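My hope is that you will study the record closing this message with an eye to the fold:
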Amino acid sequence: MNSAASAPAPEALDAAALRADFPLLAARGDDNPLIYLDSGATSQKPQAVIDAEVEFLTTTNAAVHRGAHTMAADATDLFEDARETVAAFVGAQPEQLVWTSGATAGLNLVAYSLSNASIGRGAPASAPFALRSGDEIVLTETEHHANLIPWQELAARTGAVLKHIPVRDDGTLDMDAAASLITERTRVVAFTHVSNVLGIVNPVSEIIAMAKAVGALTVMDACQSAPHMPLDLPALGVDLAVFSGHKMMGPYSIGGLYGRAEVLEALPPFLTGGSMITTVTLDEAAYLSPPQRFEAGTQPVSQAIGLAAAVRYLDGVGMSAIHAHEERLEQRMRTGLRSIEGVRMLGDTDRSSRVGIAAFDVEGVHAHDAGQFLDSRGIAVRVGHHCAQPLHRRFGMTASVRASAALYNTDADIDAFLDGVSGIRSFFGVSS
């Protein structure tokens, strides 16, 4: 990969023009404005994605990998072409991409597969991944619940010990603490690429190097990086990674699990049934190679085709241009929020690369009330703990307001948002 210094500067994208590609945004006129700043929860879908799903369902709808008729063969080709397209988007080969229903399903798949390794399923290849009492699983304090609870359950099933890399006051990870937490007993290191609350890009290369030094498996949540920055998972060196389609302009109920080939080959399956076997008798079964080994049951065919259309759309805009645009919007948000009295941001640091996410507290006003006030002005944001209760607890709060930008947001969107935030405390009669 080229370094940032040698790469040409990305061309500026025209966010206002791109809005026309998104029916929900394009349909909202001046009389019914919508400033959509909740893409961290779910993104809007371009017409190209909607059309791809509709075209499949109206012209080629058939079960894949099963029928011998022409339409089934065509559906299978489209399905596997989608795998190739989405895999290439994250720098992977098709056989390294497992379809899942989303990132949560992918993380559970990995955790439960490790459970099966721990009880001898898939041995001897899976034996190196078996966890035993006293082994360690290292997470971070920034994790979404989807990258926390499956590991809690795995620890409970195996007797492994959970450890957590702490967060500094500015929202960055304490990497000095990480160096002491990742030890010879560490078997798994699971971490988010980008915090869904703070928007901070974590030092992935440093974390992976520490894990590799002790032979630990690395698992990365790429939900908030895949839609917003160029991503080459093999180049990063991570063993396993997940991402979610609905956050990257794609359909719901589709996501991906990337795995290094030798890791996927060694892991036993989690879900079992049709589509993931070679031979079945009444007493035992033999399983297919990855990725099909992990894809039991009916496949998400139209969703996969829709996600392929989404990544083609993102590639067409240009991931470097998207990242540069959203970094600029984030800086505009953060600079503006800093200037508003009574607003406290979570993870307010200039020390790290970021995506277009800003979470904050408004002094004297509950996050839900602040969100409803913004909604009354046509500004959609997320309120609550954002499935990251431990991180909020670290900052002494139970909820925050989160604005998350995407490629279709403009400077005018950010300015209207900041104007709205500046009026929250006066509206609720909170004095300085």
Summary: The two ends are 50 Å apart (CA to CA). Residues 338 and 344 are 8 Å apart (CA to CA).
